[in-house]
Task: structure prediction
Amino acid sequence: LYASQDTSLFTENEKNSISIFRKTVNSVVNISTLLRRRGGLFRADMEMPAGAGSGFVWGNKGHIVTNFHVVKQGNRFTVSFHNDKKQYEATVVGVEPNKDIAVLKLKNPPSKISPINIGISKNLMVGQKAVAIGNPFGLDHTMTAGIISAVGRKVKGIGGVKIHGMIQTDAAINPGNSGGPLLNSQGALIGMNTQILSGSGTSSGVGFAVPIDTISRIVPQIIKYGKVIRPGLGIGILPDHAKRRFGIRKGVVISYIDENGSAAKAGLIGMGQDQWGRIFLGDIILKINGKEVNSYDDIYHALDKYKIDDIVKVEYLRKETIKTLKDKLIEINYR
Result:
């Protein structure tokens, strides 16, 4: 309930902020992550807090979107809504660590549920108003406001690769805000608050959000399949530190080939051993569709926007000769 007040005394910016909060607060949730450990012969099972964060309602079927790192350490999850004292049990539908995205589903959702208003992020401009709603330090449904400080940032995520296209904002983001929405002045979701850059672990005015365009591509796949359907070549690549031991600086070294994958059918060759047990290098991929690849991060993002059965042009080095082939992408799990 909100107290009646003469809004004619408010500035237009204040009126806008109040409107955003009222329209969105019922779509924002508090997520508690719990770890249940089984006891021994003479010990009861134990359950302990393993983390907390924020999330938002996606669609009208009880799905909640949050960060992967919010749910990573737990095996039981409870969700609470604004002005609702009940704790709702939820299960994990699926995760995408490389984008720091997770989807939960409520076992018994409230009778009335409010999906968040989904926007777009491809046309965001520096200087636009940005509003965050979440649960910093366990203070539920807290709102902070600022601007979009930058777009298109590349920030290393929990999955080990950089998340491209990240939104930078100076809206205060603190521990507990993770997984909560970043909104524009119309109250539309433009990103999911994920990280802060801070020496103290608290807000320093440099926060990052996964863009909604990425979330809108990933979440429907997780809801439908329980995972992200990722295209790939059917290869393994040599880690950077091992690559350097062979004196290789450019390209990614193919360590092995999936015999049922498209790379094998195209004739690419991985590492091997001769009859004396000496290791020899196979092919080294230099470019995919004209884009240089020098690491796992590069090859991941070179293929990220393609679909299964798309044809890509692969430039590779074989015994000091640069060759080119066209290969069809297949469904693959990188990790």
